[in-house]
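Show me any protein, fold above all:
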Amino acid sequence: MHHHKTIQTKNILIIYDNPTLLTTDSIDPNGLTLLLGIEGGLSLSFLLRNSAVEYLIPSNWKKDFPESKYNASWEWVSNEINGSVYAIREDIENSIISNESISDGIRIISNNEVSSIIEKNDVIFVY
């Protein structure tokens, strides 16, 4: 007799090319994404590339967005989700930010590691 696992953890990778601020406000589509990752039994990872890496530094999004208790820094996201926040080393080097100012929870990878991360995930969204 075969027992099928009823709970299938889906590994989801969301890739951002442009600076994106996640929020825990459930009205916001990004908020919904985040809540799924925190409460939905999904393994949710994020990959920040190109100019998206700029928002790893909170001061960069704080100047673009009104202050809100719902704003979720990438450091907070990396601590809360059942997954990882990745950033591309080459894009950081080409950006306005420096490696030293990025929090420890962010996993910095090189471009040639991206395909192996994509392979580990069942569902990929690119924004």
